[in-house]
Each structure stands twice: as structure tokens, then as C-alpha cells.
Amino acid sequence: MEYKTTVTKLGEIYGEIFEQGMVVVFNENAPEELAELSALHTAAALPRNVKPGDEVTLGDKRYVVTAVGSEANHTLSKMGHCTFVFTGADKAELDGHIALKGDGMPELKPGSPFEIYLP
Fold this sequence. Notes:
Elements: E1 2-10, H1 14-18, E2 22-27, H2 32-35, E3 39-41, E4 55-58, E5 61-68, H3 72-79, E6 82-85, E7 97-101, E8 113-117
Parallel strand pairs: 2-3, 6-7
Antiparallel strand pairs: 1-3, 1-8, 2-6, 4-5, 4-8, 5-7
């Protein structure tokens, strides 16, 4: 199973959030105040909850999920929204975070893939 979508736009202040070590994702219909800091993507159905051990592709990089906040699956399913943090932590700092382990931060642009592999 996969959650497979494509980045369509980077918000005006996406870079400021990125510099803090985070990538915020949202479906294209995000409210304007959230769209400006997000990587917007096409809507997709989440076949099951994301859990540690699943893999995420953002742009040309692949990561392993190490922790999932208590609200992240709900908001990802409903609004395509979560915040990816690249800490490799075994516990999510905030409810909407999904912690990832991998090689550096992704370079996203319109057309970049955003996929979650759910074995």
C-alpha cells in the first residue's frame, strides 16, 4: 500500500520553516495562513495509519519513520497535513509531528514526489 502524491507548490515562507529542520505538508486546499508555510500537494487517500518503520519519500530522498505524534495520522488522512521533522527521534515532540531518519533534508519543488510506503 502507498500514499502517493505530488508537491504542487511551496508556500511563500516555506523556506523559513525548512531552515528550522521541518517540512510542513498540506493538501492544496489548505487555508491561506497555513498554505504560506507548507509544501502543498495533491490530495490522496491514506490506506492505513503511518507507523514507525514505514518509509517516506520526499523529493529525491527516502526516510524511515521513527515516531508518529498522536494527531499526525488524523490530520494526514483528513487534510494531507503533518509536520515532518528530521531528528530520527523515537518519540514525536508534538502531536502533529512525524519523525524521520535519513540522509539530510529533502529538496522539494513543484513536481517532487511525496510518498509513504505502508507495507
